[in-house]
């Protein structure tokens, strides 16, 4: 039997698959090159009302550096880095491909003070301690928080109280106040009683808030009442009522003289004394404004 040697057969080739593999390899190489040369940080823009730091200082605080990979930027890490600075609040970020980053940052502002063990601590609207001064330092134009049972106060940390509800109440009221028209008018926030939170204003008005529920509505009602009280129309109404009261008093004196219960001399003397008295006044000192129901405002004039 004649046996001849036959070489092994090669598998049939697939030119299309080979070309695809080459293209994928080239694409991967191109992507890696682009990642290392194109998608790198070349521009950092800082948005927000911050006066304490320059944009470059904020970028340094955030820990971002030029020519780092865009894909290495992590929002959680940025937030943690920015808020490690007690004056800054991280508001968000946006990557602008291929090489830009927008940082949104705001500056924490003094919203209240707390005096503890002879030290005045400055709080922002989240109850975070921004600074501390001696108690006899010049006061800030922000409310003083009273009635607290302090557990811990440290710069850069949130206020801690023995009763957690006090911390939560202070944070809630300060956050709402910061967005309201009462910001510059409130001089004291008392949080001694969970069901009887109240504010004192620069003109001596006590605003009774009740508990912490529906605080936005309560503050809104209070500021609307004060807006009306401060309006020229309200003052005009007070003057009109004063004139009406004087007219009614004069008519009563005239009737008294007519029916013989008062002489003309007595009527004239009473009129003279009435002119010397202060007219009808609307004084907020010692008055109360109860908005605790979050539905209506109950105004109680000073006694």
From TrEMBL:
It is found in: Membrane. Residues 39-108 form the POTRA domain. GO terms for cellular component: plasma membrane. Keywords: Cell cycle, Cell division, Cell membrane, Membrane, Transmembrane, Transmembrane helix. Its main location: membrane. One of its GO terms (biological process) is cell division. The keyword RNA-binding does not apply. It comes from the Bacteria. PANTHER family: CELL DIVISION PROTEIN DIVIB, CELL DIVISION PROTEIN FTSQ. This is FtsQ-type POTRA domain-containing protein.
């Amino acid at each position: 039997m004649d046996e001849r040697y036959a070489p092994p057969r090669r598998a049939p080739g697939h030119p299309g698959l080979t070309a695809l593999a080459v293209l994928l390899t080239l694409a991967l190489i191109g992507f890696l090159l682009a990642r290392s040369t194109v998608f790198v940080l070349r521009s950092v823009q800082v948005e927000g009302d911050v006066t304490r730091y320059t944009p470059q200082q904020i970028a340094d605080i955030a820990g971002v550096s030029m020519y780092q990979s865009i894909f290495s930027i992590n929002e959680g890490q940025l937030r943690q880095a920015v808020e490690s600075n007690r004056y800054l609040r991280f508001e968000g970020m946006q990557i602008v491909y291929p090489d830009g980053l927008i940082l949104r940052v705001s500056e924490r502002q003094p919203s209240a003070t707390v005096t503890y063990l002879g030290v005045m601590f400055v709080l922002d609207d989240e109850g975070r301690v921004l600074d501390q001064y001696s108690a006899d330092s010049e006061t800030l134009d922000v409310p003083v928080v009273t009635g607290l049972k302090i557990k811990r106060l440290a710069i850069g940390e949130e206020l801690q109280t023995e009763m957690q509800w006090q911390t939560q109440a202070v944070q809630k009221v300060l956050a709402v106040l910061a967005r309201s028209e009462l910001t510059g008018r409130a001089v004291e926030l008392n949080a001694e009683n969970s069901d009887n939170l109240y504010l004192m204003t620069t003109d001596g008005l006590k605003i009774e808030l009740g508990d912490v529920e529906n605080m936005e509505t309560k503050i809104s009602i209070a500021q609307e009442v004060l807006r009306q009280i401060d309006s020229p129309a309200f003052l005009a109404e007070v003057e009109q009522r004063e004139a009406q009261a004087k007219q009614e008093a004069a008519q009563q004196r005239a009737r008294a003289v007519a029916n013989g219960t008062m002489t003309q001399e007595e009527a004239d003397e009473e009129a003279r004394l009435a002119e010397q008295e202060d007219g009808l006044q609307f004084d907020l000192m010692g008055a109360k404004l109860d908005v605790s129901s979050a539905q209506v405002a109950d105004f109680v004039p000073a006694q």
